[in-house]
Amino acid sequence: MTTPIPTTQTAQILIIGAGPAGYTAAIYAARANRQPVVLQGMQPGGQLTITSDVENFPGFAEPVQGPWLMEQMSAQAAHVGTKLEADTASRVDFNQYPFVIETDSGVTWHAHVVIICTGAQARWLNVAGEQEFRGYGVSACATCDGFFFRGKDVAVVGGGNSALEEALFLTNFAKTVTLVHRRDSFRGEKVLHQRVMNHPKIRVRWNSVVDEVLGTIQGSLRSVTGLRLKDTVTGALSDMPADGVFVAIGHDPATALFHGQVQTDKEGYILTKPDSTATNIPGVFAAGDVKDRVFRQAVTAAGMGCMAALEAEHFLAMRESDSSAAV
Ligand code: NAP
């Protein structure tokens, strides 16, 4: 006889999201003997699962692969006692205590602390053709889709670290890579800038924005043929041939679930107290890219996950001492 899965469960610390912030929060909370639960969501491991070489996470002399690094964090969290749930939060209610969190699989969690670590999602250009050709030549993940462009001409849109890294990564497959950037200088780090400028397969279209993604549709077959670019200085339009387009223009915080529940800024980033991960709701903390528009690094997200777990432990300990003093 199989035991039915209970539809209501409790957690001392419930962590929503499984990137570096979520796993680090889990490791610290588990080591504080709080039996944390992580709702891993649709993309366990977060943005690093779609990153190739990671060279700047301390502790590794040689570059490591993003997916491998996240597997290690997940395994470490499980090893110290975290319950990892392959489930996605679908509704939260922070007006009740314990907090109520419902999931896609129909479980209702009652949690004494919630740590929000839902990260950020790729931003799109919102130009004609982009949506139509997504998955048919338009992508936001070179690591995932670069392989399909062996020997082809591709474009990368953006001028930050992500765009520069994606362009360099794509040179492993593509015949040529054209970086399309709306200004005349990159936002990304100098070291990447130099690698890009010195790479024989990469060229740059400065002062250019995408006006339209061009392509053909024949029955169920769709393929990208190029980009219509607009010169930001002269306003002139020109067509550039390309077999694939990688959009790397930044991210938006994944906070739709929390609207009306915690304070956010006008772009949706969760607001926290200075030098803290505490939100405006006592017992709800936020860590990583979901609250950080400035640094957005795996290592800073991990650091904030640690802070959130320590603050969560302090919050629970204070409540416990208050309630035992009241007896
Ligand atoms: P980002 O730094 O915000 O850069 C976004 C780029 O896209 C900018 O160059 C921006 O142009 C351009 N852009 C934005 N909206 C656009 C639009 N609608 N049309 C055309 N271009 C547009 O984002 P990111 O590169 O994803 O990086 C995010 C954070 O992660 C950064 O802090 C970055 O340092 C970090 N990161 C680090 C690494 C690493 O250290 N290895 C790797 C990847 C990312 P403007 O420059 O004109 O604003």
What's this, in brief?
The chain is of the alpha/beta class. Helices cover 24% and strands 29% of the residues. Strands 1, 2, 5, 6, 7, 8 and 19 form a seven-stranded mixed β-sheet that branches. It has a five-stranded parallel β-sheet with strand order 10-17-11-12-13. It has a three-stranded antiparallel β-sheet with strand order 14-15-16, with no helix packed on it.
Provide the descriptors you would attach to this structure in a database record:
single chain; alpha/beta; 6 helices; 24% helix; binds NADP nicotinamide-adenine-dinucleotide phosphate
Question: How does this model look, in words?
Answer:
With about 325 residues, the protein is an alpha/beta fold. About 25% of the residues lie in helices and about 30% in strands. It is built from 6 helices and 19 strands. The protein has helices at about 20-30, 65-80, 140-145, 160-170, 190-200, 300-325, and strands spanning about 10-15, 35-40, 55, 65, 85, 90-95, 100-105, 110-115, 120, 140, 155, 175-180, 200-205, 210-220, 220-230, 235-240, 245, 250-255, 285. The strands form 5 sheets. Strands 1, 2, 5, 6, 7, 8 and 19 form a 7-stranded mixed β-sheet that branches. It has a 5-stranded parallel β-sheet with strand order 10-17-11-12-13. A 3-stranded antiparallel β-sheet has the order 14-15-16, with no helix packed on it. The radius of gyration is 22 Å and the shape is elongated. The model has no long low-confidence stretch (mean pLDDT about 95). The structure holds NADP nicotinamide-adenine-dinucleotide phosphate.
